[in-house]
Request: fold
Amino acid sequence: MFKFIVRRFLQTIPVVIGVTLLVFSLMHLIPGDPAQIMAGETAPPAQVERMRDRLGLNDPIYVQYGRYMANLLQGDLGQSIRSNRNVLDEIRPRFWITVKLAIYSTILSVFIGLIAGVFSAVRRYGLADTTIMIIALFGLSMPNFWLGLMLIQYFSIELRLLPPSGWGTWQQTILPVITLGTAGAAIIARVTRASMLEVINQDYVRTARAKGLSERLVIYKHALKNAMIPVITVVGLELGALLSGTVLTETVFSINGMGRMVIQAIGSRDFPVVQGVVLIFALMFVMVNFLVDVSYRYFNKRVDYN
Amino acid sequence: MTGLATQNENDPDKAVISTSNWRLVYRKLKKNKTALWGGYLILLLILVAIVGPYLTTHDPVRVDFSNRLQSPSAEFWLGTDHNGRDIFTRLIHGMQITLIVGFSSVLVGAVIGVPLGILAGFYGGALDSVIMRFIDVLLAFPGILLAIALVSVLGGSIGSVIVAVAVFSIPTFARVVRGSTLTIKKLEYIDAVRALGATDLRIIVKHVLPNILSPIIVQSTLRIAIAILVASALSFLGLGAQPPSPEWGRMLSDGRNYMFDYPHVALFPGLAIVVAVLAFNLFGDGLRDALDPKTKK
Reply:
């Protein structure tokens, strides 16, 4: 197990290097002159030149990347062009908001998804199964930002039950978490159902039944445990969608997390901040994937990543 | 001589197998009611996108403050927005944008992702490692984040949305195709064709590609659903289509400030997105069931 963890960790290194290369290249993908765009369309040439100097755009590209990496290794993500503050300092207070939003939503989607999926599988082709699967299909096809707007419309404007924006109190948590967690719940419900149906038809489940075990025990002890393996894979994949979904959810509910920060930075052409936030998101996701693979290995000893 | 032999011995056989396969798929698809509904819905959406704009009587972009924020009525079926424009007309015109962005971004993603997947799966070794590490890097960006980053530098337009969503689709195609190619490559008849002197290119085009077509088709259909969601999200964030475009996500973000007093402004564009995405999800699900060898009975 320890050897596996080390090997899997080493595999993340080339990916992280690739990620830094891509994030670094973002600034150079801007059509036209990045210095002009960041200084402002109408900025005088002298000011554009200062901006170019500040961004280090006069050096050869490999020198720029080398400097970027050297700074990065010291935890320096550059400076915001608008506030002149260190990008990492700007991110820090917002980081945990986004992480909490993502974690709560994950818990909600796994919880609802598992229950709905198992329930559906046990009552295959029944009314409950059909209803749950139709709801899941809608959950999957709905843009989460629209769901958020509709929830605000109903629960905040009409019923006046929950606040329409902000973050901090438990009331402010409910609507954003439902908004962000719904699509994941739908996908997990579908996968759990399919996986359970496959497992329920296996010989060992029939044996467990033949032994006279109660249906409850058969489902929860024998079937569910083995049906979990594909579910974990999907949860891992869904975490990516959840992490980036915070961008939309935070925008809809005016939550000052990293997601809203990146959109505001794009709006004000503050590319060092955009690069910083995108990098942090990607590093978080690489970490999460590493943890998912390790836990996957724990549940399924046959997995071999070589 | 060898070339002739390959032609005669393999192609007729393959043709027989594939036509009977497609007929089987069609028969199974016909039995799957929900998939059929999805298919019909897609055809309807395409029809509306093509002829709809000619049938609407209102202008999709012209501002008319005298009819600002009207509720749904006989004249304005779904009401009007804050600029007095008929929402129904705008949705019909927006359908074109939605379908063009959905189809073209997935097409571009497939045109890049499929060859990458075939090369990685077919040749293996160092080429496989290089391609798959590149794909891993793309996948390291969670969900739509890479698409957001790309449109942010490319600038807000339908064109950049297509590019961004295409790049977002590349990894899925590459991975699915690589997996299928690995399976096909190990089959005996590929060895047989190779023994007959077929070149790699010929094997890939004539034997590998036709056999991995069904996962590609299923993936494409499901990816269109995702592409529509992502594209509308980008425009909702203000990064994609710009006003006065009747793009559905853009309509939602434009209507946001008015939806508290006039809910119809945000309700209908969202419903339009749900219907379009649902159509492709239903059809894709049905296709997958019909094309999955496990359910072939």
